[in-house]
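Project channel, design review

CF: Before we commit to the Rhodocytophaga rosea constructs, I'd like one complete example in the thread so the newer folks can see what an input/output pair looks like. Taking UDP-glucose 4-epimerase.
RD: sounds good, go ahead.
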Amino acid sequence: MSKIAVTGGAGFIGSHTVIELYRAGFEPIIIDDFSNSEISVLQGIENIIGTAVSCYDADCNNQQVMDTIFAHEKNITGIIHFAAFKAVGESVQQPVKYYRNNLNSLLVMMEMMGKYNVPHLVFSSSCTVYGQPEVLPVNEQSPILPAQSPYGSTKQLCEQMIEQMVKAGKPLKAISLRYFNPIGAHPSGHIGELPIGTPGNLVPFITQTAAGLRPMITVFGNDYDTADGTCVRDYIHVVDLAKAHVKALELLDRTHDSQYYDVFNVGTGAGNTVLEVIKTFEIVTGRKLNYKIGPRRAGDIEKIYAEVDKARDVLRWQSGLTLRDALKDAWNWQQKLQSKAETAQVPS
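CF: and here is what came back for UDP-glucose 4-epimerase:
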């Protein structure tokens, strides 16, 4: 089994990717400092795949600790680098925090790759690298416009760092996956999105509101140039997204060049407005949501969705799950969380 270090592997996307890696015959090694994830995720992963996964509680910015991990594991053949701060709104308020963490953690990983002869890197990038696109859908040749947030800027800079490392002649094969908007949960209900504090993403805010944990959803702006005035995003099921990482590693495996770099959009190829997501959730679950229209949020892009032909043709991947599937699975996950919380409160 090829060992794959998965930084941020206990997070939302990382945990689902760990499952798909294991099912594809890889040996995932989780590295996560649990600053934005929960240790309980490890049990959820084990419940799904039937075995425990190696996990290190460690910060990817700590080069000495990473040295220890890579030296101990030996023969890691690839890294999937998820570990990063990711809240657009927070990045606008705290840009230094985002630049320090997101850039430095990648630098440390690339140093580990050179020192321990790790040939493959899959980087967790984002459609935010496109800024506010002038033409939709965006493809991989679309202009990289000024980012709308420090978070988006860090993803642009990280992609440049990887590309320049490859151009420098280092024995590195890398792929950046430009995610659109991951939502949903594993259909088993054992793992899903676990935002700490107030969710920064739409769907966990929806599910928490439906569960009565939050009084209301605020829709940030309804005066955009879209069908109903709310922002448009390309919402992709997290399980589909996780499978794209396996396809990326398989592509790197079959690429004969010792230096290789490419980028791929990972989305469904269609866009939905915020209000469409809310209405679809109501239809799928039969639950009415309480929401209000608020002011626009700093850093938000008006509309973006992917052209995914390259991922289909080169990466040999395409999405198979729908918005309805994702919302159904997200609600199932929320209900499982509620059930656990209620059980824990019952006196023994």
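RD: helpful, thanks. The first strand starts at residue 3 and ends at 7.
CF: The two ends are 44 Å apart (CA to CA).
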